[in-house]
Amino acid sequence: MGRIEESVEVAAPLEEVYRHWVHCEDFPQFMRGVVSVDVSGRGSSSWVVETAGGRREFEAVTTEVVEGERVAWDGGSGPVRHSGVVTFHHVDDRTTRVMLQLEVEPPGLWAHLAEALGFVDRRVIDDLNDFKHHVERSSGLPTG
Q1: Which residues lie below 8 Å from residue 134, measured CB to CB, with a gap of 6+?
Q2: Taking residues 26-46, what's their average pLDDT?
Q3: Coil, helix or strand for 16?
Q4: Strand order in 81-92's β-sheet?
C-alpha cells in the first residue's frame, strides 16, 4: 500500500474550509479527478474518480469525525482499496492548513505503475489545489 501525504494552505477561516470539505458531494464541480459523489447520509458515500489508472468506482465509509478538526474514512475492500484522514489546522484567522494522509492499494499492474511513477500523488496535489481555489473564490476574502 502506498502512502501519500500532502498539504495546502487555504486563505479562508478554518470553519469555512471544514464546511466545504464535509460537503464532498460538491467536489465534482471543481475537482478534476472527481466525477461524482453520492452521500447516503449514513456515513457512507459512493464515488467515481478519474486516475492515471482509469475511471474507478468505490464506496467510502466515514470512520471518524472530529468537528472542525478531522475526518477519516475507509474505502473498503473494493477495487480501489484505500483509507485516509484529512486534518484542518488554524494558521491564523484567515488561513487554514489542510493536511491529507492517504493509503492507497492500486488495483492491477498498470495502476501500480501509475502509483510508482507518482501519477496518483500528482492527482491528489491537483485535487487539493482545486479545493483550495474553490474555497478561496467562495470565501470573498482577498487572497493576495
Answers
A1: 20, 29, 30
A2: 89
A3: helix
A4: 2-10, 95-105, 81-92, 70-74, 54-66, 44-51, 34-39
Tell me the backbone φ, ψ of residue 2, rounded to 5 degrees: -90, 150
Amino acid at 20: H
Phi, psi of 56 (to 5 degrees): -130, 145
H/E stretch holding 133: helix 119-139
Question: What average pLDDT is seen over the chain?
Answer: 84
- Residue 135 φ then ψ, to 5°: -65, -45
Polymer length in residues for the chain: 144
For 4, the enclosing helix (H) or strand (E) is: strand 2-10
User: Which of 47, 23, 44 has the alpha carbon at shortest distance from 36?
Assistant: 47
Q: Can you give the pTM of this predicted structure?
A: 0.83
Which tens digit of pLDDT belongs to each residue from 74-103? Answer: 987 666 678 999 999 999 999 999 999 988
Answer yes or no: is pLDDT of 27 > 50.
yes
